[in-house]
Amino acid sequence: MAKPKVDKKLLLKVSTNARLNLTGKEVDEFLPQLQEILKAFGKLDEIDVKDEKPSFQPLSLENVARKDLVEKCLSQEEALKNTKNKKDGYFMGPKVT
To answer: 27: how many CB neighbours lie within 10 A of its CB?
Structure first.
């Protein structure tokens, strides 16, 4: 597959699509930087991956949550013991106006 040449014209087109209003000075500054970045990423094309399976998740997924076990929960008194804002056995929040 032929790679498009990254030149001033392409940079201006992409910046217009991204709604970036680049000045001429910014284009002159960013063009060599963009070319260098793309050159570095181009090295990935040199890697032989024909025997590799596609991976959509870079890290293996595993459930790290604790088991869902029925345990003794706090009593209403224990849950409210550290708050000053309680009324009739419930947490009391600010008035809504």
So the answer is: 14
Show pLDDT as tens, one digit a residue, over the chain (97 residues).
667 788 999 999 999 999 999 999 999 999 999 999 988 998 988 899 889 888 788 788 888 888 889 999 999 999 999 999 999 999 999 889 8
Three-state secondary-structure class, residue 81: coil
User: 82 exposed, middle or buried (CB, 10 Å; 0-12, 13-18, 19+)?
Assistant: exposed
Q: Rounded to whole angstroms, how far apart are CA atoms 58 and 56?
A: 6
pTM as predicted:
0.48
